[in-house]
Amino acid sequence: MKKKVAVFMLFGQSNATGHGIPMREEDYISEPLKNVWGLNRDPNQTFDSDRLFFTGYTSHGMNLAETQDNTYSVANCLARQWQDAIDGGEELPDLYVIQIAIGSQGVYDMWYPEREIKLIPGVHGTADISLYPFTIHILSLLKKHFAEEDIEPDFIGMHWRGGEQEVRRPIAELEGKLKKDYIRIFGGMREALGYEFPIVLHLMPYVEVFTKEGNVETMYYINGLFEELAKEMPKTTLFDPRRAPYYGEPYVFYRWDLIHYSEKTNRWVAEQIFEEYKSR
Fold first, then answer.
1. Terminal CA-CA length for the chain
2. What are the E-state strand segments in 104-191?
3. Interhelix angle for 178-193 vs 216-232, to 10°?
4. Does the reported pTM lie above 0.85?
5. Which of 16, 102, 115, 153 would bridge with 66, disulfide CB 3.0–4.6 Å?
6. How many CA atoms lie within 13 A of 218 on its CB side?
7. For the domain bounded by 3-278, which CATH number is listed?
8. Average pLDDT, whole number, for the chain?
């Protein structure tokens, strides 16, 4: 009989790493969780392996791309909430978490499909990984893992937290191109894994900072493009962080830089994802 597991994927850039919001030591997940599993960078951060190595989830070492550990990322928050629910008596399947993200890397940076193949590990500013082919490699091995372990995946979805880098480009550079590239990237991921898993695109609410540092018109353009993708691509939906009840309080919703989400917001996002899964 196949074993059912829930599968959560978090891809993108800095807000997918939990950039700049380090955990307090008492919140570290140092003891591997019993019912949540992840892919540690060692030995999975390579193009050379022909299999994946899952271990009990910890809050360090589980982002397969950038080294930035023990942060209040959505991945770490969801893992903790999931294990706490099981420990509290809720009947849930085990959770698999796959996280691949590097800060400041958009569709035309390390996520670009035609980029030269590189895999240099390290912290933000040092890590240099061709994220699209690396993700395709990992997902193809995940497909193999499911088959070999007789696992029936129940996909929470692939949550995409990206778009910020493209906001710094004029719309004219993106028109007729960015949408096609997103379709190509997401389609390639689904093909590699062999499942039409749900895709959840996180809208960008960064009006405050981009009026100073970016192009707010481009932000609206990309959010509109995400809305088009949600209508046109199968099993694709939107997540709007502005639903948070305290969205109007910038320094509660964000950290001090008004770019990266706060601990409170990432905990809230993880709670929404968890509750939506349980309400199926």
1. 22
2. 119-120, 128-129, 151-161
3. 40
4. yes
5. 102
6. 19
7. 3.40.50.1110
8. 95
